[in-house]
Every structure is written in C-alpha cells, then in structure tokens.
Amino acid sequence: MAREIGEAGDAKSSTIKKHKRKKTKKESKTRIVHANILYDHAKGGDNPNRHYANNKIKTTKYTLLSFIPKNLFEQFHRFANVYFVFIALLNFVPVVNAFQPELALAPVVFILSVTAIKDLWEDYRRHRSDKEINHLDCLVYSRSERCYVEQYWKEVRVGDFIRLRCNEILPADVLLLSSSDPDRLCHIETATLDGETNLKQRQVVRSFIDLDAEFDPLKYNSVIECEKPNNDLNRFRGYIIHRNGRRDGLYKDNLLLRGCTIRNTEEAVGIVIYAGHETKAMLNNNGPRYKRSKLERQMNVDVFWCVIILLVMCLFSAIGHGLWMYQYGDKRPVFDVLSPEGTDLSPVVSAIYLFLTMIIVFQVLIPISLFVSIEIVKICQVFFIHQDMELYDEETDSHLQCRALNITEDLGQMQYIFSDKTGTLTENKMVFRRCTVAGVEYSHDANARRLAMYQEVDSEEEECLSHGGTLPRRESLCSQHSGKVVLRSQSTKSHRRTGSRAEAKRASILSKHTAFSSPMEKDITPDPQLLDKVNDCGSQMEFMRFHSQLLNQIPPDLCDVFDFFIALTICNTVVVSSPNQPRQKVSITLQKKLRQKRFRTRNVMKSSKKYLDGCKDSSSLTTNRSSSQRACSSMLSSPSAESTLTKLNEEHFPGQGLQQAFSPVPPNYDQAKASAPDKCELRYEAESPDEAALVYAARAYKCSLVGRLPDQVTVELPHLGKLTFELLHTLGFDSTRKRMSVVVRHPLTEQITVYTKGADSVIMDLVRPPSGNELGKRQRKILFKTQNYLNLYAADGLRTLCIAKKVLSKEEYAGWLRCHLEAETAIQGREELLFESALRLETDLHLLGATGIEDRLQDGVPETIAALRRAGLQIWVLTGDKQETAINIAYACKLLDPEEEIITLNAESQVQPKLFILPFLVHRLGLVIDGRTLAYALDKSLEDKFLAVARSCRSVLCCRSTPLQKSMVVKLVRNKLKVMTLAIGDGANDVSMIQVADVGVGISGQEGMQAVMASDFALPRFQYLQKLLLVHGHWCYSRLANMILYFFYKNAMFVALIFWYQFYCGFSGSAMIDQWYLIFFNLMFSAFPQLITGTLDKDVSAETLQELPQLYMSGQNSEEYKPYMFWMNMIDAFYQSLICFFIPYFAYADSNVDLFTWGTPITTLALFTILLHLGIETKTWTWMNWTSIAFSIVLFFMVALCYNASCPTCYSPSNPYWTMERLLGDPLFYLMCIITPIAALLPRYALLHLTVLRTLTIVFMYESVCKYSFWHP
Description:
Elements: H1 5-21, E1 30-33, H2 67-75, H3 79-90, H4 101-134, E2 137-142, E3 147-152, E4 161-165, E5 173-179, E6 185-189, H5 191-194, E7 200-203, E8 223-227, E9 238-241, E10 247-250, E11 255-256, E12 261-263, E13 267-274, H6 280-283, H7 294-326, H8 347-361, H9 368-386, E14 392-393, E15 398-399, E16 401-402, E17 416-419, E18 426-437, E19 440-442, H10 445-453, H11 484-491, H12 501-510, H13 519-522, H14 528-547, H15 556-570, E20 575-578, E21 584-585, H16 589-600, H17 606-612, H18 641-650, H19 671-675, E22 683-685, H20 689-700, E23 704-709, E24 712-717, E25 721-731, E26 739-745, E27 752-758, H21 760-766, H22 774-795, E28 798-808, H23 810-825, H24 830-841, E29 846-857, H25 861-870, E30 874-878, H26 883-892, E31 902-905, H27 911-917, E32 926-929, H28 931-937, H29 943-952, E33 955-958, H30 963-977, E34 981-985, H31 991-996, E35 999-1003, H32 1010-1013, E36 1017-1019, H33 1024-1061, H34 1075-1085, H35 1088-1096, H36 1102-1107, H37 1113-1116, H38 1123-1147, H39 1155-1177, H40 1183-1206, H41 1219-1223, H42 1227-1271
Parallel strand pairs: 17-30, 17-34, 30-33, 31-32, 32-33, 34-35, 35-36
Antiparallel strand pairs: 1-8, 2-3, 2-4, 4-13, 5-11, 5-13, 6-7, 6-12, 8-9, 9-10, 14-15, 16-36, 18-19, 18-29, 20-21, 20-22, 23-24, 24-25, 25-26, 26-27, 27-28, 28-29
Region (Disordered): 1-29, 488-508, 611-631
Organism: Pygocentrus nattereri (Red-bellied piranha)
Binding site for ATP: 420-422, 691, 733, 757, 799, 879-881, 960, 966, 989-990
C-alpha cells in the first residue's frame, strides 16, 4: 500500500485539479479529506483542507465589542422591550413629555441591564469552559519531527493524524486507521453522547487491518471521500480511495466521535475527518429546549387587551382635553402650553399632543416587570422541583431533570398522556421465562418460582443464588448491575450526600456492575427436560466428532435444540469481557491461530478476481434504512469479500442439510480441557436487555459465549468444549425488518449457515416448510405448535422472539454475496440496496423455536396510572410489541379494566376500518388497534372517525406501532382535539413522539439517553410522573396564573388613580403622584412580595393533591385563569382605585393642602391595598411572605422620608419637601390607612370567602367518599 511521498503528492494534485474542473452535484454533498502532512511545506492556499472548520470550540455568543449591540438587538426581539424604549424616548420630546426624561429611562435601563448582566455572566461561564476544553492536550503527528507531538485541541485540523491512548477523550471525529489491539479493534464509551455506558466496538478501516508493522503516517497516500458534517450519531458513509484506484467503504464503525472515551486499547491512530463545530457531538449540542406555554399564549392575549384599554383611556383623555380647550374659545387658560414657535395650539393639535402624553403617563398599564418576574419565578420553581427528594431514585442515583425552563406551568394542564410500554411502564429488565424448541414447550417452572420469590440483595456481600438440587452448580458470573449507574453516579454528584459511608459503600458496589446483568436477569434456572436434551445432544455429537461419523443418526429434534442454543449464543453483538480486568476483551489463543492461518491463505482465484476488480469492499452490513432509524445492534466487521469469494472456490462443500459429517478433530484438541469449566469468569456487554437475556439463558444450559472477534465467535458447548464460528456477516437489527441475522461458517459441518432472530410477526412469515415429504410435514406441525405457544406467551404478557436458521449452498451464498457487494459499492441509495440485500438472504427459513421473555412492570405503575386517570387524564399506550403481549401488560398496569368491553381493530385493508369504526361511536370502551390498522386509521379520510371512536373509549392501546406512527398519533390528537399532550418514553424510537408533544418526558432507563436528550423533562421512573403532574404541575400553574392576574390588577389599579385625577385637571396629563413614586412603584415598592408568593404559594398541600387527584382538573379546565377573570380583575382594579382616590379626596376637600400632600396618601393607600390584596390571595404563609411585605412597606417609607427631606425645590411650584414627615404626624392619615384598604377589598374578600368555602366543601366531600370507600370496600 505504501508509496513514495512524491507520488502521493502528484496524486493529490491531480485529484485537486480534477475536482476544480468538475463541480458536480455529488461533490456538493461530500467532503474530500487529504493528509495534512503532504502540505506542511506548501502555501496555505494549496492545502485542500483549508476550508474546513478548525477544532477550536466557541460556544459564547458575544465578544467585548459585540456584547452591547448584540445583546440589545436580542433583547429588542421582545416586543415589550421595544414598546417601553419607545415610551422612554417619547418622553424626551418637550411637547409631550410627562416626566423628567432621565427618570423615565430608569425602569427600562434597569430591566435591560439586569438581563444583560445575566447574559454576560452566562457567556463568561461558557468562555471559561471553552478555554478549558480548547487547551486540552493531544498527540498530533509532525512531519518535520517525524513523531507525534503534543498540541492543544484547538490546534488540531481536519487531515491531522492523531494518536489516542487508553482512557483519553477524543478531541475530534477521527477515522480509525490503526489500533494496538491484535484484532484491530478499538473500544469506546459513548456515555457523553447517548448515555450508554456499555462499550462499543470500532474497527480499523478494512484496507489497514492487515498491516503487520506499526502505522506510518508518511506512507499514507489515500484520499477520503465522505458525507458532509451532520448530526446523525448512528450513520457515517464514505470511501477511502487508494493510489491504485481501489475503494474501501467507510461506516460508522470506523469513526470515533468527539467526546467519546477510549477504553481497553493502549493506542490507536486515526485521521481527523470533522473538527470543532462540525463534529457530530457539537452538531447535537442544542442545549435546553424553549417552548411557549399555553398560559403564556393566553397572557399575550390579555396584554393585547391592556394595550386596547390604554389606547381607549388615552383617546378618552385626548378628547376630554380637546373639549376642555374648546370651551375657552379665544380666551386661553392661564396655564396653556404654547407651541414651540410661541403660538397658541388649536384644540385638535393639543388633543393629539395630549394623546401621546397620556401614553407616557399610563405606560405602567403594560407591566414592564411582568416578563422578568415570570422568568425569575420559573427558575425558582425549577430549583424547588429539583430539590424534591421524592423524585430522586436511589437505585440509579438519578434525579428529575428540567431541560425546558419555561413550560413548567404546562405540567398542570395536561389532558392526554401518550406512553411507551417497554422501559417506560416496564423495567426493561428482560428475564428469560419460557421457550419452545422444535414444537415442544419448556415451561421452566423452577425458574418461575425463583422469580416469584426473588428479592435482589443490595449489599457488598451479594452472591448469586443457587440453581437448586436437581442440577450441578455452575460457575456463575459476577453479580453485577447496570453499568449505566456508574457514569450517571459520577455525573450527578451534586445530588449525593457527601460524607455518607452508606453512599460510599454503595458506590463501590456499583462500580463493578455491568449493564443488563442483575442477578434477577442472569441467574436462570434451566428446565430439567430441556437440559437433558442439551446434554444428550452434546454427548452424541462428541462421540460422532471423535469417530467422524455422520449426523443422520442424531434425531432432528436434538439437532434443532443444538442449533437453537447456538443461535441464542452467537446471533447478537454481545462483547465478552473479564471482571478481573474490567472491560478487557477475553483473548483466546485458538482464535488467533485460526485467524493467522486464514489470512495466510488469501489468494485470489481467477473466477472471482474479474468480478472483484473495481468492487472490492467490506462485506459487513448495516441495515439502517434512514438516518432516523437507530440501529439497535452495532455492525461487526467481516472478512474481506475477496477472501470470502476465494474460499468459496477453494473449499469443498458437503451436501446441504443438517445430517452431515463432522470436520476432523483439531490436532490440539484436549477433551479434559474442553469439558472443564473456564476458570476465568466472564461478563457480557450487551447493547440491549433482550440480547443479554438470551445469552444468559444459553449459558444456563452450558452453551456459553466466551469470545467475540470481528470475524469469529467462540462458544463453549457441553461435551464439545470451545468451538469457533467464522463470522462472515452481521445483519444488524432495525425497526423495519424487526430482526437480525448472522452468517457464519459452522465449525463442525463447514456449512455456511444463517441464524436469524426477530419478532414472531415477521419470522413466522419467512418460514417456508418444504412440501411433499416427511420433513415438510414435521416443519408444518412445528410451525403450528409454535404459533400456539406464541399466543400463550403473549397472553401471559411475555415478549416473544422467534429463532430460525438457513443453510446456504456454495452457489446460493456466492450469488447473494455478489449482489450484496454491488449494493455496498453503490453511490446512490446504498441503504435501500443493503436493506433489499438483507431481505433476499432472510427467506425460506427453518424454524428452530421461540422464546418468552418477561419485562416486569416498574414499581408503582398501576397506582400511578389509576391516579392519573382519576385526575381526568386520558392515557394512550403506543408500543411496538405484539397485540397479545401489550393487552396483557395493559391489564396488569390497570390501563384496561376487566369489566370494560374491548374493541379490537385488526384490518387487512383500508375498506375494513370503515366497516367497524362507525358502530361504536356511542360506547365508552377500551380500544386496541394494531399497527397495520393504525396506518389506515391515520389516513385523511378516516382520521376524524378514528378520533371519534378513540375519544369515546376509556383507554387506547396501539400495538405494533412504528416510531413514525407514534408521532403521527400524538400530532393528530394535539392538532385535531386542541388539547394539551404529554409524551413519555425511554428509547430512541420514542424521540419523535416526545418532540411532537406539548411536553416531552424522557425516562433515563436502560436504553441510553436519546429520549432524555430530546425531552423537556427527564424522570428516573414512570411513577414519579404522578407527583410531577399532580403536585408540582398543579402548583406551578396555580402560582403563575394568579401572579399574572395579580400583575394586571396591580398595574391597572395604580394607573386608574391618575386617570380619575384627569377629570379635575382638564385632562392635561398632570399627576398628583410624585414622579419617583410613579416610576418605582411597580419596580421596587410592590415587586418582592409577589415574587415570593409566585414561588412558594401552595393552594393545596402535596398530600391532599395526591390523595385527591380530581383537584388536578382545575388546571385542565384553566379554572385559575379564564378570560373573564382578566376582566373581573380589571373591574376590581378600577373599583379599588375609586376608593383609594376619593376617600383622600373627600378627606382633604376644602383644605389648603398642596398637590403632593394629597397625592402621597393616595400612593400610600394604594400600596397598602395592593399588599393586603396579595395577602388575601396568598394561600400559604411563610416567614418569607411576612418579611417581603414588611420589607416593601419599610422600603417605601424610607425612600419617601429620605426623598422628601432632601428635595426642597424639585418640582416648582409644587414642592414634595417634608410631605411624608407631615403626614406621619397627622391622625387623619392613619385613619385613612385603616378605612380605605378595608373598603376597597371588601368585595374581593367576600367573593374569595365564597370561593374558598365552595372549594373546602368539595375537598371535604372527596375525603368523605375516600374514607367511606376505605372502611366499606
């Protein structure tokens, strides 16, 4: 592969010229990456990688120069800020100004400054984080020094060669070219990307696997063509083009992503493909989600009405002023304001000027501080939700996360909940329960009794349970829990109690745990009958192996048993590791020897060489149909297609079928060693709990997976010892095919065999029994029996998987392989072609058996669903499980009631749903619909009828639904019914549903963190949803709704005081209240108590809200904030302002007090009335409520006293000097302070008393019913 550097440089130059000459459409969608070391001495403009982003990370929004203009520009995106700045600037116009211009700017400047300081602090924190990351070290190859030198992350460029060491974090997206692992593997941990702590395998690019010497960057002469940067973590496509024109495919298993951690690999070398902000990790880093809540949308409508009221008041005042001026005729009033030219103004022009002046005077009607106050209250609410220890899960050391900061009140208004089943309602701990092999069912009664009595022991001395006296005790794996717990524990240390010995002890235990391997999951008690068959089959095969006899003497049912457990063992992507050296791959000497021997025999035959010219490529396969589908099992490497096709021509295949001769016994075979148990305990790193459950089930029958390499799998079988299967292809699982397959070369028969496992709905359709012979009759009988057992498993709520196999002849495999290679080398539509290639292989299968796996319900799920339903929430479950399983789980979790009638919609065509949707429109039933019928029901012509039926049903259960169907159902209900929706799930297949809903909740479960990363809120368990909605959701909605209404009332009441004065001053825009009080009344004097109430107030206790879920309906019906409430508050505000205005007016009538001596008591009375009004509305009093009210009163009097004492000639001829001091010595002032608030608040108090009395009556009735139901069941 090596070439001289000069030749490589010429190749690169010709390639560059070619790309400059031809700007094709394909090139606009791809990226060409060259090695930078070839251009170290060239000019900067000659480096073809110069246009790509560097690796410097900058997440800050501002610089020193751009901060002020950019921040102001962002703040002016909010219409309210633009409005208030306009009012402040309008006050600088002399003709229309109402206050001192500088003083009018104070509130706006204060609000903008507070927001700017907050943004600046957040940006500074981002800057410090960026600086720390950019100055991390890594090893980059230097051509001048001919070695790897340390450089900062920010200095790394696309095209650099990087050396990575164990436990090192990747600085960029790197294409793996070399690994110190003898199998050219690199293990990475992707917890920072998707939350999955189980190790992932990544493999060196195919053409670099066979290098015997250490990778030398100077000999690299290839060009990489790959896709443009994108945020899809599960896809990477491209080619590496060598000097001789050969192209090798690049896949996601060749790419190491930024932020991942290298594990179990001493060193690895790669070339940077994406750097900096073009890496997949950075493209996925969207931060918190921001949405507009329903309450905020309703508030904006009322803000609009406030604008209308403001304009009406200003127009009324302008007309009044014009009429007042008109009555004087030619005689102008003494205090008439002249025009700038010194001439008299006409009544019309004066009215226009007065209209603008009144906008300035009445500006407080639009609450400038409301928006800032809402943000502060929401942040405080999120903080207190996080502090709720009842939402903390000790087992996983995880807590509720709030990722959307501005929709907390929506939690109190939910109407529909859409939930996933697996991992959301269930634990996603897959426990092997039963199986059927060759038409015979094995109930595993002993294992069922173990699970019934099982209680996991959480102690340092935890040991595996014994399998019972009927079986010899096997060496079991170390008792280990989910490996996810470890990293989550590290990432949430802020929630842990430091200094606790119990916590330290627990952490030491959890640090040893592996995903999906709790004792409940892995300590399986085998069925005695099936175990006898396995031992019998193994002993017969051992005998025939030593005597090279044919397999036709073994009964077909035993052969099926043997293949069944082989399929369970090898048809997966489980990684084997050793607990003595955590996460270290188990090395097997025999595997290495076989691998070396295989590589030495790679000679190209003439028959295949012609075909392979120009289309040599890797024969591994990933069957993701689109970037939105997540591959649940990683694609493992396979031997080169060249080697595979060569062997097809070199080797002699025996006839097809099971009954074949064994291959000769290896010369180094030792029966004693083969039958002896492996002293090294193993543990399994599985990507899904289903895979782990099946591998542990096979191990219980002494069929153990002991090693996995990219091109071979080693298993240990009873009596046969260790066998190595050559792994030719792995066809990964995807949500469309709903199955996975492995293509292996059987070590005993040398046959190429396909083992397939998947959903029974697809596998059973792929089974094709031969016709017209005894074997066909037997297969049809097995097929019939297996289907019956599958129905029984589903009725018991078990997850079912079918296991099948297929033996390929040499011609069949060669023909499929050639088509498969064409699909892999295709440029356009490669995913679709690979998908079709997998479909062609997975046909005419031989059914081996089926498994039933139990996914246990989470704690508290039935009670949570019952409480949510009593709260008036409609719950729909959308699952991909088969119908019978989903129905059984629905009954177990009380979603379906045994007493209600169930409508089951299973249609084969679009005509059928029309027939049975209509008759049930009037019934309240339970609805169960499968995926195919759901696809028809979501059609435009049927969606309205489907919704009509669904609304009339108490529960809805959608089975076999795809991720796209889930999101379509949520969107349909949300848009058509105009309701508030919440979607909750735990897996990547729930992401689209979570994002479509008004509120998305992710469960931080065992399927990674994709759902959490896409959600607005994240919960450790489903049962915590009850308190999040019924308690915190209710509180957040009630607090904010009342606070918003209070803001509107307070501002309207204060503005109305000035409006009434206009009737006594000729509508001149004058105010009897001092300008300082006008400006700072809402900003300082009355701001703090409402923030405390909006954060801490509780209309009902948490215990009562959970005992009486029906109280949640008040939020669903928006009873705290209805449109009429806004107008009721406006009316009340105008009434209270009349009282606060006219009581001082009549008290000081015919007196000689000046304007401010009369106006200051009005301000004081308004403050007392507003604070007392807040006190009436407050349901829960704390010391902070009392303190905030006392602080507001003291602050007002201190400012008034100091201001009046220090301003002798502020507003001539009116003078505020010593006004408050004189009032404090006047008994009339104290009398007004007592009478006025009482008179103003009497109607409000009476109305509130009646409302509270009615609420308490309802609560008492509910409590009485609950007590009666408890004592008289």
